[in-house]
């Protein structure tokens, strides 16, 4: 894994063991047709997704509210370690171009996937610039939202 | 080279052929003890430099004004292609942590080095979020500053 350190005062972490194989978790995270099935916690949905799986590549999703309002989001992929780590950020757009985060604070997501028995040790970390961004993200429901999405991811992975 | 595209309305480019070998240009760009000798256009100087040459690693410099005022700057390395490409950004700090740019606008620097006869085709691109950041960087003297620093880099490379 490339250089990074987690700071509990600035970052948020969701860590859990799930009963699907690591390669299925990786596939669910990196395949647009699968992402749209789990990425947004219900009753929200994901109406489209585009992934260019390489450093500098686009990580694009459109989330749709229950009322049908759409929220596009563009990020930049930073690290791709096949089957074990995916890192992307909303501080940059495709091609490493700096961008202003639409929701007020940028964050970098580090998704790590490791074998744990027949299942997967899953760790998702949101890295923020400061404690206020961390709090904003926490208050938006990071733990519940990423947790519910992970449940959906597991359902999708089991259906493969 | 990883995915990125230059947009002339948003980006600034310095492109020049210099009469030193590509491996010396690479060495001058990636060795802290050499960076301090050329990075700041005179009469400014660089009082210290730290480089952790891997994606997520720190790119740190402290520039010193002729009056002795110091201006530290921290960036994050994104791409290292030995001898040919170095990409780093001020939109992220070490470990891919989002950060607020101290001088008001973040940018990503793409330095490309390619053989050109016995010399080097050198291309430095500054990638901005929008046209106003591009203009701000241009007005700060991007072309003159990066050009003068390149002249200093060539002198350092010739001394090796």
Automatic annotation (TrEMBL), chains A, B:
Pfam families cross-referenced by the UniProt entry: AHSA1
Signal peptide interval: none
InterPro entries reported in the protein's UniProt record: ASHA1/2-like_C, START-like_dom_sf
Record family assignment: Belongs to the AHA1 family.
Domain Activator of Hsp90 ATPase homologue 1/2-like C-terminal: 20-156
Lineage: Bacteria, Bacillati, Actinomycetota, Actinomycetes, Micromonosporales
Protein name: Uncharacterized protein YndB with AHSA1/START domain
Domain of life: Bacteria
């Amino acid at each position: 894994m490339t250089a990074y350190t987690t700071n509990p005062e600035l970052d948020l972490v969701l860590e859990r063991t799930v009963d699907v194989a690591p390669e299925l978790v990786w596939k669910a995270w990196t395949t647009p047709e699968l992402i749209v099935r789990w990425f947004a916690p219900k009753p929200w949905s994901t109406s489209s997704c585009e992934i260019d799986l390489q450093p500098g590549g686009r990580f694009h999703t459109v989330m749709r509210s229950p009322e049908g309002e759409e929220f596009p989001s563009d990020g930049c992929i930073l690290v791709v370690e096949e089957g074990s780590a995916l890192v992307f950020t909303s501080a940059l757009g495709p091609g490493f171009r700096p961008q202003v985060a639409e929701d007020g604070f940028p964050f970098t997501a580090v998704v790590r996937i490791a074998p744990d028995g027949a299942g997967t040790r899953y760790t998702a970390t949101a890295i923020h610039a400061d404690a206020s961004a961390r709090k904003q993200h926490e208050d938006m429901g990071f733990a519940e939202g990423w947790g519910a999405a992970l449940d959906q991811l597991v359902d999708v992975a089991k259906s493969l």
